[in-house]
Amino acid sequence: MTRSHLQVKDCLCPRIAKVDELQKYHDIVTKDDIKPNVFAVFDEEGRFLDIVEARQAALFPGRVFSDLIVRKAVKPISSDTPLDKVQARFAAEKCEFLTVIDNGQFIGVISNLSLVTALIAQERALQHERTALIEKLEVELNYRKLATLVFENTSEGIMITDAKAHIIHVNHGFTKTTGYELEDVLDKTPAILQSGYQKAGFYQLMWKTLIETGSWEGELWNRRKNADIYPEWLHINAIYNSDNEVVNYVGVFSDMGPNKKLQQDLHQLAYFDPLTNLPNRRLLYDRLQQAITSNERDHHYGGLLFIDLDNFKILNDTKGHNIGDLLLYEVSQRLLLCVRKGDTVARLGGDEFVVILQGLSSEITKAATQAEVVANKILTLLNKAYYLESLEYHGGASIGINLFSAGKSPIEDLLKQADIAMYQAKNKGRNNVCFFNPIMQEQLNTRADMERDIRTALKNEEFQLYYQVQVDSTHQPLGAEALIRWIHPKRGIVSPLQFIPLAEETNLILFLGQWVLETACAQLKAWEQNRLTQNLTLSINVSAKQFNQADFVGQVQVAIQKYAINPGLLKLELTESMLVNNVNIIIIKMRALQAIGIHFELDDFGTGYSSLQYLKQLPLGMSTN
Asked: 99: helix, coil or strand?
């Protein structure tokens, strides 16, 4: 009934005036914001004097209605009397006001109107409480439904235990991941999932952290019902009651198996060759850096073997890439048989493999011998027959060796030097082993400088044509042969024997040959202006690469038209070596050029094979030197 009393008191409080406020009585009752129905009036000693209504006080400001005490006096009621009893008292006494007394002490006055107001307020308050409670229950119910929905449908596994770690509930995600239904694990501990991968100390530390902090998370390996081992990421939280006692543990975990597999696949693609499963270039660089660091620590040499299969392209082109892939895989397996456990066999791409030999001797001579022994072992094994589907194949390899220690050479340089040595082995006749040496590097540096200078010379017009006169038997000039010369700004005159072969290898001969063709045509045009030289012919050398261009005939026609020369005065000098391959195509081009008036000369005739046989196939009207 305390609630009723409080509500009554709340209704009464605005209607009570203290003795010390009597002088302000008039001001109080006339305020707009205070409109009491009744007032209780006390004397200075706290004795009850009177009850007045607001309208009476407003009509008679300052008056004390002592004469009304008897007429208006009513029997007091206790402050803890229920509202319904108070209402009954009103009805029984047929009075408008009741005095509220508590243990003989006056509390206030209650009117019939204020009682009704209090009852209504109480009912409204109770109704509000009921509504708020219902809304709260509905929210909690929705949260419970949502929590249940999440619990049952999340892909993560959820396991709930009691305070003693006995399983009391699991969700569908738990069953899907582990294979265990609720009835399989009910009242059991999570130890049923242990795989044995983690030692006892792991779980001791886990429980220590869980007890001290209330949570733990980390990776561990568990066992499914079918005995498969899988990795999972587990998060455990302790649930406490109002007394801060653990009542439950909730474990939420996700199967890391798919992610682990994806990570492994990405790692495999990033660091391993998909065909041979050997380390690729990226991993090779990492292993080579480790080998260099190891050599620096142990003061030993390491060996870098650069291996290139001989004639692999021919096999690939004639038998197909499938057969080529079979050979590459077989080679990778044979290479692994030739090295020690700590060594590395990698595939760079194509038919190129690299072997890193670690921990060779600290003496360079002995280290070289050790590397050569491995290289020869590789050659022996790679020379044995391969059985590729129905094909029996015999092949070899060329191997370049580069020894390295704790020097400062970049990894790229070490590989390049081994590559250089490998090409030197090929130049020796294939199926050979060759060591890199500084002289070889110097030659390559010179070659690189020469190539760069040729490109510069073409831009700066450093090449010139010199003309060697050709005479008849009476020593009368018939024409001339154009000879190219390079006037280098620093080296002076550079022999064609130095730059022509390099121009051939780098395809710069195509640009050089075009320059010779146009310069010769311009010279013929200049001779045409002089009566003494207007009938002279001019021969130019044409390289095999230049002649074999698909549009070479068109290039010659354009040059002739550009300078408006007599094509009969231009001679193209070919070498017999050009006729060895694709002789039929060459003869077709020669006839097309001959049709527009071009003449030919054959240089170095008789130095090749079957010279007479080729000569019979050449178009008529040609001369030989």
From this structure: strand
